[in-house]
Amino acid sequence: MTAYRGHLIHIGGAPRLPAVAGNLVNEPDGVIMVDDTGRITYSGAFDARPDTGDDVVDLRPAFLLPGFVDTHIHFPQTYCTDSYGGGQLLDWLSRCIFPAEAKLADPVYAQLMAREFCRRRLSVGTTTALVFGSAFPHAQDALFGESIRTGLRTISGRGIQTMGPPSAKPLLTDEATAISLVTEEIVRWHAADTGDPATALVHAAVVPRFALSVTAQTLHALGELYDSVRDRGVYFHTHLNENVDEVAEVRETYGVQTYLDTYDGKFGDGSAQAGKTLLGPRSVLAHAVHCTRDELARMADTETSIAHCPTSQLFLGSGVMPWQATVRSAVNVALGTDVSAGDEWLIPRVLNDCFKVHMSEPGDQRVALHPAELLFTATLAGARALALEDRIGNLDAGKEADFLVVDPHRQELLAETLAQIDEADRDALLFTLLMGMREEAITHVYVKGRRLT
């Protein structure tokens, strides 16, 4: 058993969003005790810990935070942050992203990118990520292999495209090949590290790029495939309602009432049921900026989650996900960087944008998010979206020990700024920490009790 002593901050228990402020744990002299299986056996005040003669790692004055959970990030876009596309989503994809992703056809290049992708995640404390994958199987092999080598939690699936503009041609396959490659990836990589999804760090997902990258026939085939593997803990991940032009094109192309219908098996003309739903507790839809009330209600009913990506929505001018209307629907909202449309890898920088974006919503839609709500979206809400809440997301006893050591003295002015705050004002302290911290303050990263380097 090892005891890690520091300033403990996390969202305890399993609250829904409206209650998270009341579940904010702030223990200035705190400790988590971790056994040799990587599980937390005690979490709380240092002086109240069980006296079992454990080794104590004194990390004070550093903070102990849960590892960050990124519910939407693109592996093949590792080198694409700040790519100038000259327009919004569809232009940017055609001019910048499809050509960049095509370079992963080179196995050597793909291996290099996988190594740097994992190294970058480690440097910013993203211990768990739902990763939009490459179209090329060897690139996905490199990603999963490097994730296992480094010890990061990674859920990913190859990016499925059976149709697209000329710039996407190297990424396209026919439908039969697409289904075959996804099936092979699931067989090879789902829970490949332990053989058991309940203990694994790596998991597979079914990942069509978005409704316009496939046909109704492909969606039907993916529905059949996903239905056959859903109970094995396989995930579904894609984009939804990101851009107004995209939404209009999806509705016109499929003849559906809403964009969500295409993933709900209702891609027949007029939203007629034509296949099996892809929605559910392990389904995460990125962006959801322009959802109807019915779409939000359907996601909440099916326990489908939203990956909220405020930084990328600013970068591409996609609009703002209306926070209050979205959370009132009871749908789970977690945070995503959306690298590379999102140009920030560090989750607290995305939280910074999240706060500012929703403070700038018009009229009575404006909201100042509580710092506990911000931390929740970056940790426990992400674990909930990934059906991993029983394992990770906070630092409660019984959870696996995914945590960060954040030393404010490693970052210029951060410690001095925090010192100006009354230590009894936990909300102000957390807000300043989340808004102000940069990656140099992250000194250690642990996954399942193992320090990663």
What gyration radius follows from the Cα positions, in whole Å? 21 Å
Helical element count?
14
Which term fits the overall shape? Answer: globular
CATH third-tier fold name of the largest domain: TIM Barrel
Most strands sheet? 9 strands, parallel
Our count of domains comes out at 2
Q: List how many beta strands DSSP finds.
A: 16
In CATH, what is the class of the largest domain?
Alpha Beta
**SSE-based structural type:** alpha/beta
Q: Give the distance, in angstroms, between the N- and C-terminal Cα atoms.
A: 21 Å
What is the CATH H-level superfamily of the largest domain? Metal-dependent hydrolases
Enumerate the spans where pLDDT stays under 50 for 5 or more consecutive residues: none
Average pLDDT metric: 97
Strand content: 15-25%
Q: Provide the helix percentage.
A: 25-40%
* N to C succession of SSEs: EEEEEHHEHEEHEHEHEHEHHEHHHEHHEE
Oligomer: single chain
List keywords for this structure.
Amidohydro-rel, 7-stranded mixed sheet, 9-stranded parallel sheet, Urease, subunit C, domain 1, 453 residues, alpha/beta, hydrolase, globular, 2 domains
